[in-house]
Design goal:
Elements (H helix, E strand, L loop, with lengths): L13 E4 L3 E4 L10 H6 L6 E3 L2 E3 L5 E4 L2 H4 L8 H13 L11 H13 L4 E7 L2 H18 L7 E5 L8 H6 L3 H4 L9 E4 L5 H4 L15 H9 L4 E6 L15 H12 L2 E5 L13 H5 L5 E4 L11 E6 H7 L19 H17 L1 H17 L7 E7 L2 E6 L8 H12 L2 E2 L1 E3 L2 E4 L7 H17 L2
Helix pairs in contact: 3-13, 4-13, 5-12, 14-16
Length: 455
């Protein structure tokens, strides 16, 4: 039985824009979006180049968040575009199971050369969410392969974000991402988060107070016993929850406790990877090397979906046993090492290298810090914080309407030609690494103007 193409129901929302025509918006169930509000007043993007988007009607919008923390080299960069086009013409797909293509090996070699020393194996996925679930499975399977199969417990952190697959939301610690989906993966516990407004508000760079919060892992070890714990996963800088920056010494302390108890340490660098802090990875910035490291977003400049897990050779080698014809790690995806994604990543790495983008954030960090903290005295602001080229402006909430104030500011900034990101009542900024001081000034002055009149 065919569906009636014109059911007698409420009319579907229709959007239109100069150069785009009219189109029906009803069928698309949008991700992480206030869908009813959006479809009543759509915010559409039709074109992008370097630091800017353009709406269908031709209005320019400064991208102050690198798309979604991912367009690190700026939009529509020639070498990346050309690499994708040439690969699509040459070969569109190659099966990744018991087969491969040359670019997957070329890319892995270049990624390992860029990674912190000791992380010298790469497993490809298609997103940060998949990379996280892959790393969690690696950790559990690694302990089993070495004769400690009882190590199955996973430790995340409150307010952590590790994507939206079941493993990721289980170790993640954002209630809104968890509450609708049942009991999660079993055997998970959480460290306390590191955000302390009372002691660390308006910190520039790493907060002074809170290294001892890493000792919360000892509490969890005492509760569950270290022999049951496979891994701890944290974001070096928690991004999606609102830019929570680790206190001085925190990550070093966490690394030491994991080493003490034989627990693997996983860094989720989906946001911090590929230059966001002014170093290739946050592990380089903090001089703390994890056992496994997840990446995505900046690996292809957001052009083609891709993620990856970096692993220590010792972890990889534990799996290399048994019959040679047998699959050692029964995990992967149809689109692992997709040819277009590998080509996009190679073009991205070349662009980063040509323009020194993986360290450019260190040069731009000082003017960015000054700009972010210039908002500290404006109405509703209760904290400003920064590290590298990522910053946050935290606002007090409207009583009974958490998140509304920041969302209203997000919409007002977009109408004034600046794209920001909000989570709860926190404004997050993470501009492309090609950002100039004039772009920073435009973004901050627009936010300031909106804050001065915000309800």
């Amino acid at each position: 039985m065919h569906k009636d193409p014109n059911p007698a129901a409420a009319p579907s929302p229709v959007a239109s824009g100069q150069g785009a025509g009219a189109f029906d918006m009803d069928a698309f169930w949008m991700p992480f979006t206030a869908s009813r509000q959006f479809k009543s007043a759509p915010r559409l993007l039709a074109k992008a180049k370097d630091m800017h988007y353009w709406t269908p009607e031709g209005r320019q919008v400064l991208d102050a968040v690198a798309g979604l923390w991912c367009v690190n080299a700026g939009h529509s960069r020639p070498k990346i575009v050309r690499a994708i086009a040439e690969q699509a013409e040459e070969m569109d797909f190659a099966p990744p199971f018991n087969m491969a293509h040359p670019k997957s090996f070329e890319l892995a070699t270049k990624l390992v050369a860029l990674a912190p020393e000791g992380l010298d194996k790469v497993f490809y996925t298609n997103s940060g969410s998949e990379a996280v679930d892959t790393a969690l499975k690696m950790a559990i399977a690694y302990h089993r392969a070495r004769g400690e199969g009882q190590r199955t417990r996973l430790i995340g952190r409150e307010r952590g974000y590790h994507g939206v697959n079941f493993g990721g939301i289980s170790v993640g610690g954002i209630a809104g991402n968890r509450k609708s989906f049942g009991t999660m993966v079993g055997g998970v516990d959480h460290l306390r988060h590191t955000h302390d407004l009372k002691k660390n508000a308006f910190s520039r760079g790493l907060p002074e107070h809170g290294a001892e919060l890493a000792d919360d892992l000892e509490r969890i070890v005492a509760l569950h016993d270290a022999s049951t714990i496979a891994a701890v996963i944290v974001e070096p800088v928690a991004g999606s929850t609102g830019v929570l920056i680790p206190p001085k010494g925190y990550l070093e302390r966490l690394r030491a406790i994991c080493d003490k108890h034989g627990i693997l340490l996983i860094f989720d660098e989906v946001i911090t990877g590929f230059g966001r802090l002014g170093t290739p990875f946050a592990a380089d910035y903090f001089k703390v090397t994890p056992d496994l490291m997840t990446v995505a977003k900046g690996i292809t400049n957001g052009c083609v979906p891709m993620g990856a897990v970096f692993a220590r050779r010792a972890i990889h080698d534990v799996f290399m046993q048994g019959p040679e014809h047998a699959v050692e790690f029964p995990h992967g995806y149809t689109y692992s090492a997709h040819p277009l994604a590998c080509a996009a990543s190679l073009g991205t790495l070349e662009t980063y290298a040509d323009e020194g983008l993986l360290t450019r954030g260190a040069k731009m960090a000082a003017p960015f810090e000054h700009a972010v903290h210039s908002l500290a005295e404006l109405p509703h602001v209760i904290d400003t914080r920064n590290i590298g080229l990522v910053g946050a402006i935290e606002l007090d909430s409207i009583p009974g309407a958490p998140g509304k104030r920041a969302f209203d500011i997000f919409r007002a900034c977009f109408e004034r030609g600046v794209l920001i990101r909000t989570t709860g009542d926190i404004i997050a900024l993470s501009p492309p690494l090609i950002v100039e001081e004039s772009h920073i000034d435009q973004a901050i002055s627009t936010i300031a103007d909106v804050l001065k009149t915000a309800a």
